[in-house]
User: Fold this.
Amino acid sequence: MSASRIADGSVLRTGLSHVALSLATFGTLGVGAFGAAMLFGSEEAGGPRIELALYSEQNGPPPPLKNRLGPEALEAHTNGSPDLGIEYEELADAALDGEGGPVTITVTEISSNPGAAAAGLPRAPIAGFYERTGAGDLPKIGPDGRTPAQAYARPFAAASGQPKIALIVGGLGMTQKHTNAAIEELPPEVTLSFVPYAPNLQAWINKARAAGHEVLLELPMEAYDYPNVDTGPLTLVTSAKPEENVRRLQVLLGKATGYFGVTNYQGAKFATDGAAAGPVMKALKDRGLVFVHDGGAARSALPQTANQTGLDFTVADRIVDAELTADSIDRQLLALEALAIQNGSAIGVGFAYPVTIEQFRLWAEGLKAKGYQLAPASAAAGVQAKP
Assistant:
């Protein structure tokens, strides 16, 4: 028993010695570190720090894909806001008066806007390129032969050896936040397309042109499942008499001024009927406009009909946001780049969804470094602007 107690005491003494030695070692290191900090440290480095984020992130999944061109899709996103680096004040539509009064925008975060300093385009209407009618101010060819397409297109100087790519953002004017985002955030070379039923349409067009964007007007045309897809009371339909479609066209064109051409708003069924489309295209040609189709109609008779009537007609190469994800949009933009190399130019069409606007903005920032030139749709369609 005595031998066991002696052994246990030896172990205890050894453990206590190790603990004491460890405490002494850590104490020595702590005193040394404190002394070094006092001698060589900086009081500013030891103070509290505040880190500021200059760019915000878009949290959450992108909005689900809706009917691209129907009014329901526009209404479905009125509560959504593109998270593109700026915030917009909540303003009533009345803030956009008929004379094109500016919409107040409060910038609360820094945003990289490649088009912020771009020179604006002349305010519409331009004298000599419109006529007063019962349907409103309609475009007309000027006395010197210049067309409204040439007068309202954005001037463009093509760079030798650089393929041209044009982007069109459609469905604008129905939701204030998304329309503001497209006008303010996208480069001025991006063409903006407006819904004719939009409240304060002329004010929106004035705002877009002041920011340097050329403008298209969307013509509602009959879809296969019309009227279940409701494109409004002025829809151009295959069952109407030619004079009725021309009358509706004049009312649509009289909604505003300042557009260099038109594009389709739905219209898969109307595009297949050359007899119905012919009088409409002849009227567009006589008024000096161009037609840029989004390319979404199969078996379209529009190219042949446009050729017969002499209307300048162009079909876009891609609807880039048919699948509404950032990765899919990026893939379609890469496809546009390949087409531009092959053909010299390419046109992509998108809708005013937040994810579309953001991906267009990000892609455009790096386009010049890739050796491409961002061009207005008018230039890609062969219109030579003559201000």
About this structure: Confidence is low (pLDDT under 50) at residues 1-8, 48-117. The chain has eleven helices and eleven strands. Residues 12 and 18 are 10 Å apart (CA to CA).
